[in-house]
Every structure is written in C-alpha cells, then in structure tokens.
Design a protein that fits this description.
The complex is a heterodimer.
Chain A (H helix, E strand, L loop, with lengths): L1 E5 L8 H14 L4 E5 L5 H5 L9 H6 L10 E2 L5 E4 L8 H6 L7 H6 L8 E5 L6 H9 L2 E6 L3 H15 L7 E9 L4 H13 L8 E2 L2 H4 L1 H4 L3 H4 L4 H16 L5
Helix pairs in contact in A: 1-12
Chain B lengths: L5 E5 L8 H6 L4 E4 L4 E9 L4 H4 L3 E6 L4 E6 L5 E7 L9 E2 L7 H10 L3 E18 L5 E14 L3 E2 L3 E6 L4 H13 L3 E3 L4 H8 L22 H18 L1 H5 L4 H21 L7 H27 L1 H6 L10 H23 L1 H15 L10 H21 L7 H20 L6 H41 L4 H33 L1 H15 L1
Helix pairs in contact in B: 6-8, 6-12, 6-13, 8-9, 9-11, 9-12, 13-14, 13-17, 14-15, 15-16, 15-17
Classes of the chains: A alpha/beta, B alpha+beta.
C-alpha cells in the first residue's frame, strides 16, 4: 500500500483538487484507493457528495475505539472510497498529543488497511503541526502544490529541511506548480525555470482553469465530467509522474 | 472479501427498462448509470468440475478495453482477479500453468492439479446500470441489469438478471431497496448463480460428472444381467466422454480416465461375463484388450513426464540439467505414441467396437429373476477374495516380481467388484473394505511401478545410447534414478508382508464376508 499526501502549509493552493483528481485516476488505473479527508472543512467529502461526519469523531479514530474501516464510505466511482472529514478533526493535534507515539499514529492506523487498499491519499489541512508530522511519517510521497511565487518556493525549502531532520522513514517530495495564471509574467517565469533546477519538482504544472473550479458545482473529479479538458490531461500527467516517483507499477 | 450483492431475476424480460425503476420507484431515486456495457464471458472449470466442487467459480470476462479472470468463492465474494494483457488471454482449454503468475493461478493450481481448464459456458452479457441516489444525488446502491445470451454449450437467452450492488457505508439503503425488490411483483430472488442459470438453460447442471460406472445405483434383488447392463453402459458413457479430450490431448487425465473405464469394463466382463448373454463376453474381450493395449504406451510416458519434476528433485549426485536429454527423449517418444493412440481412437475399428458394444448392451435381457445382483456379487466377491488370499499366501521371499504383479491384478479385480456392487452394501462397511484393499493394492502398485519403470529406464538408456549421442552425465543420472527405483521397490517389498497380513486378518476377512451376506440377506 502506497500512501500519498497532498500537503502545504498554505491553504487554497489546490491540495484537495489534487487529492480528488489523482485519487480518481488511481482508481481508474485499477488500484483500490482510499482518500482520507483530514481537513475539518470537508471539501473532499463535499466533492464526493458524502456527509462530513464520522461516528465518534476524530477521537474514536485516533484512540482506536472505532475501527477505521467502519467509517469508510464508497464514492460514486469504482475502486475509490473515502474516509470522510469530521468537524472534530479541528482537534486532531490535541487528540494525537494524547496518543502514544503521536508522530507515527496515522501510519499505525493505516497499516491494517493494506489488505483492502493499494493506494491511500491523505488530504491534509493547511498547517504545520503534530498532525502534519504524523502525515509526513505515514506518507511515501508528499505531493506539494505551489503557487509560483518566491515565498512559495521558500515554503518548499522549509518543508524539505524539516523532512530532512526525520530519523528513519522520510517521505519523498514531489512539488508542482498549481493555479498558474498565464497572464502573470512572474508565474510563467518561475514555472518555466524552477522545475529544471530542483529535483523535487514535477515537470507537470496545473494551470488555473475554470473547469477545476467547476468541480465544486459538478461535485465530481474533472476526469468524470470533463475527461478531454486540459485540466483532466494535466492531472493525468501529474498522476503518471507521481505514480512513477512512488514506484507503483502498471 | 465476502459478497453482499443480492441477485434477482426479472420474470418478464419485455418489461425491462421501464418496469425495474417503476417497481422500485418508492425505494430510491434512480439514475442511469451509463451506457450499455457488453461483456464476453467464459466460465472455466476442469472436465470433472474440480473448481465447482471446491466452491470456486472462475470466469474470464472481456469488455472493449480489458479482459480479466475473476475467481469467486462459495458466497460469491471475489477471491482474486487477474488482468490479462491485450491479446494474452489463454486459448481455452489450457493448463493452469499457462495462466499468468499471480493470485488466481496460486489459488486454482492446487485445486485443478494436472487437469486443464475448459470452457463450461460461453455467453455474452449486455449490462446496463442504474444508480440509486440519496437527497444529495450521491450513489448509495447500484443495480446491474444483465441480459445474457448463452452461446455454449447450447444457445439460450436467459431472463434478465438483476444484481443489487451495495456501496460501502450505505447498507441501510441497500437493505431498503433489497426489501422492495423482494416484494415487487415480477422480480424473484435468483435461485442460483449466473453460471448455474446458464447451464440450466442448456439442460445441464454444474458439477455434473461424466457417467461413472461406480456410481450406478443397483438393488440387491435386481436381475444380475440388468445390473451389469447398467454398470457397463455407465462405463461406456464414461469411456466415450473421455475420447474427445484424449484425442485433443487437452490434459493427461482424459486418457487416464478412459483407461480406467476400459480396465473396469474388462474386469466386469471377465468376472461376471457368465451372467451376460452367451458369447457376448467372448466376442468383445479381445477388442477391449486391444483398446487397453493401444492406450498403454502413451500413459506410461505420461506417468514418466508427470513424475519428472519429482525424479529430478530426488537426484543426489547428478544435476537436474543432466537429465534434459532424457526428458526430451520422453517427450519425443510421447508425441509419437500419442499420434498412434489418436489414430487408433479415430479408427473404424474403435468406432465399430463402441457402436457394437453399445448395441450389444442395449440388447441384454435378463433370462429370469435369477441370479440376482446380490447373488452374483456374493459369488464373484467371494471367489475373487479367495483367489487373492491364495495368491498372497504363496508369495515368499523367493517369489519373482511377476507373482506380485498377478496378486496386484487380483486385488484390483476384487476392488472393482466391491466398488461396482457398492450401492447394495452398507456405505461405511464398504468404505472400510475398499480402504483396506487399497492399502494392499498401493503397496503392490509401488512395487510393480518401480519394477516396470526400472526396466523401462534401462531400455530407454539402451535406446538413447544406441540411437543418439547423449552425454555420459545423462546416462549416469538415469542410473541414479534406476537406483532410486530399486530402493523404492525394495521398500515396497518389505512393506508387503505387513499389508497382506492386515488384509488376511480375521477382522478384514469378516468384513468382506459380511458385505456379501448383508447384500444377500
């Protein structure tokens, strides 16, 4: 089972859109996929028309009083399941803090799911916290969407430095530019130059496209309602890069 | 993964499309789940239904863009799937070893053994899907509507099959829709699997074995000739059922089962021929002997080739690679012998034998009420047992292998009699008697197989030496195998005295005598 996490300290950079679209594409490739919507805002749950509610809330999941697989819901797409968000996830840091080995808690919770799933996506809330640390320990590959600005690139440097301090397991990092506005010269300039200079950058970029915004109206991944769109093609290319970087076959 | 899918049958296919949502309209809002999908389906099993009897169902399902093997368990839950690369689906029938390595092969191989997987049903399904939606337009259950037309073993159109597929986390919705379907008019719970329905439409039943002489039901008071006719007809059915698979060389068991049917036929005719119309046994015995002899060389080589892996694994001094020329020689000889066998089974002589034998059996009429099956069984089993006892008691350390071989044949004839008349005996007593007899027979079989194979390997070595330039390593490795066979033969000979003593013990003998008495009573 390969765990991917969409992560960035900043919000509104396209983490959820990435998790939802790549999760959909992984399932389309025949993998058994679980997406865990860790963001209490529940955007991924909303996009899949699933109520952002888990019986017993985050406490029951983190403390193991409710089996994690009992909370899983099937989406409308074959092979793609969702562990919904819950508003109590806003307290996940506190809940993790009271658990044993909090930084490794998510990895421990996910381990029994390896029988049922080949791929897990963790859609993380924007923060740098104990939850983020637990996510970084659980993930094999971090998918980091970045808006092409100088400050965003600094954020990536901070993240890679932080990951570099880990003992033992360190996730691989695949950063990519997201929400590129082609009318902005700085966006196109940074997006054109940086990927060639840093190994953690993907070749694929995700432009700012209205069809991606349409996801919240259609409540579905782009590939499901606009499979021939540029956005669908770019996500497809990004998935191929992520799949290869994570060493998934087929 | 256990299956929570529920299957129904729509009684009237003409109502399809409109009727399903109408009948279920109150249970959920329904939406079309996409275009019609066409699936080409092939269900696979061995000729003797080994997967079915092990609770497994294997299906190759092909659509426009993918073909996969799906293995399901008794509850319909999927145990394993294997995606077949484009153009790489095996040509059926095919041995399990030809499947791509993966979970399907791992689960099927120990069950199928040496048997090939053959298509048991071919069909085309047109599947439309309906989605049950909740207030958020989220899919909470799926309903697959499958219109299946069977193309093999017979052409048939099946009633539409409805499969209610749950969506994880929405079991309450599935339960509600399932309840509505159960009470809807025109929809009934499917009585069996899609495979069973397809077979039933072709007039067949899953797990239906080809005719077996040992499973014929006899009654003790039945005239013996009537019973013999039933047994011999079932053996003839079994023989004929295995001819096409033997000629097509699908797997080695077709020939094995054909030989068993021939051997049992010969044994019954030899042992009980006097209860058949006069002249019948004399007329057909030489022809069945010809048939038996025709099949022997190929089977002997099959046995060698099947045991080849075990033989090479047992090598101590030689390396398995040393034996490769021997294996090639066996395979080449087998090809030649198989051609001879196939020609024999296609010959006019064989066709005359089968047709003549069937006509002769159909003409068998009992001369009267006596002898009955019970009287014949008591007499023949008693005589065969006495022969085995006499022959076994005469065997000493100085006896030649031939005398043990004759004893083995006697044991086999006795066992065939007990099995053939088995249905008139107490099942537990019969089972125990056969078990004891088989233990002695296995020991004698091990002795004789080692004797024959030892002699054959010396013959093969001479032929290889005379006709081909084989490396000395090959002949040395064959020598090591011959030595192993000699050891196995010696061990079997040592075991024989104990086995025979068990068979000749008062308890075993009383059991055999009891069988005869219980039927005669």
């Amino acid at each position: 089972m390969k765990v991917f996490a969409t992560y960035n300290i900043k919000g509104g950079v396209g983490k959820t859109a990435t998790a939802v679209n790549l999760g959909y594409l992984a399932a389309r490739d025949g993998y058994r996929v679980l997406l865990w919507d860790l963001d209490p805002q529940g955007a991924a749950s909303y996009l899949f028309r699933i109520k952002p509610r888990v019986k017993g809330g985050g406490r029951a999941l983190i403390h193991g009083t409710k089996p994690i697989d009992a909370a899983i819901k099937g989406t409308d797409f074959d092979g793609l399941d969702l562990l919904p968000a819950d508003f109590t996830y806003r307290n996940l840091d506190l809940l993790l803090d009271s658990a044993k080995q909090p930084a490794r808690r998510l990895a421990a919770l996910l381990a029994p799911l390896a029988r049922d799933y080949d791929v897990v996506f963790l859609d993380c809330p924007p923060s740098i916290s104990l939850l983020s640390e637990s996510v970084l320990h659980a993930a094999a590959l971090l998918l980091v969407p970045l808006i092409p600005t100088t400050l965003s690139v600094r954020t990536l440097e901070q993240l890679t430095e932080f990951v570099g301090t880990f003992n033992g397991h360190r996730p691989d990092v695949l950063a990519f530019f997201s929400m590129i506005d082609r009318r902005k010269r700085l966006h196109t300039q940074i997006a054109a130059e940086l990927p060639g200079q840093r190994p953690e950058f993907a070749a694929t970029v995700i432009p700012a496209l209205s069809v991606i915004e349409q996801m919240s109206v259609q409540r579905a991944p782009v590939g499901a309602f606009a499979p021939r769109s540029l956005a669908a093609r770019q996500y497809d290319q990004l998935w191929r890069e992520a799949r290869e970087r994570a060493g998934l076959t087929g | 993964m256990a299956s929570d899918m529920r299957e129904f049958v729509l009684d009237d296919a003409a109502r399809l499309g409109r009727a399903v949502p109408d009948a279920l309209a109150g249970s959920a809002a329904w939406a079309n789940g996409g275009p019609v999908r066409v699936r080409r389906r092939i269900w696979l099993d061995t000729f003797d239904w080994r997967l079915y009897w092990a609770g497994l169902t294997l299906e190759q399902a092909g659509s426009r863009d993918r073909t996969e093997l799906v293995l399901t368990g008794r509850d319909g839950g999927i145990l394993a799937t294997e995606l077949l690369a484009a153009g790489r689906a095996p040509r059926w029938p095919s041995l399990v070893s030809q499947l791509p390595a993966g979970p399907v092969r791992e689960l099927v191989e120990p069950v199928a053994g040496v048997r090939a997987l053959c298509p048991v049903v071919r069909a085309t399904s047109q599947v439309t899907e309906l989605r049950a939606l909740n207030a958020d337009a989220k899919t909470v259950a799926r309903l697959a509507v499958d219109r299946m037309s069977v193309t093999f073993p017979a052409r048939a159109l099946l009633p539409a099959r409805l499969t209610l597929i749950p969506v994880r986390g929405y079991s309450a919705s599935t339960d509600r829709i399932g309840a509505a379907m159960t009470s809807a008019s025109g929809i009934t719970t499917a009585p069996g699997t899609a495979l069973e329905a397809a077979l039933a439409a072709s007039g067949l039943r899953a797990g239906q074995p080809p005719g077996k002489g040992t499973s014929v039901q006899l009654s003790p008071s039945m005239p013996a000739a009537t019973g013999l006719r039933a047994v011999l007809t079932a053996l003839l059915d079994e023989l004929e059922a295995n001819v096409p698979g033997t000629i097509a060389d699908i797997d080695t068991e077709f020939l094995h089962d054909l030989r068993v049917a021939v051997r049992r036929t010969r044994s019954v005719v030899k042992q009980c021929g006097r209860a058949l119309p006069s002249g019948l046994a004399t007329e057909f015995r030489p022809e069945f002997r010809w048939l038996g002899d025709l099949t022997t060389p190929t089977r002997d080589l099959d046995v060698y080739l099947l045991a080849y892996g075990r033989m090479t694994a047992g090598l101590v001094a030689a390396s398995p690679a040393d034996l490769s020329p021997f294996r090639d020689y066996l395979a080449h000889s087998r090809t030649l012998q198989y051609r001879r066998l196939a020609a024999g089974l296609r010959s006019a002589r064989f066709a005359r034998l089968i047709a003549g034998w069937r006509a002769a059996l159909e003409g068998v009429r009992p001369p009267g009420k006596h002898p009955t099956v019970a009287q014949l069984a008591a007499a023949r089993i008693g005589a065969a047992n006495r022969r085995v006892l006499r022959a076994g008691q005469q065997i000493s350390a100085a006896s030649p292998p031939e005398s043990l071989h004759q004893l083995r044949k006697g044991c086999k004839e006795l066992r065939y009699l007990v099995e053939m008349f088995g249905s008139i005996y107490d099942a537990a007593e019969r089972w125990q008697a056969v078990r004891e007899l088989k233990a002695l027979q296995d020991c004698l079989g091990a002795f004789q197989d080692a004797e024959v194979q030892g002699s054959e390997i010396r013959g093969f070595a001479s032929q290889l030496f005379a006709t081909r330039a084989v490396p000395a390593e090959t002949l040395l490795a064959m020598g090591e195998i011959a030595a192993g066979l000699a050891i196995a033969q010696r061990d079997a000979r040592r075991e024989f005295d104990g086995r025979f003593a068990d068979f000749a013990s008062p308890a075993s003998q009383a059991r055999l005598a009891g069988l005869a008495l219980s039927a005669a009573a």
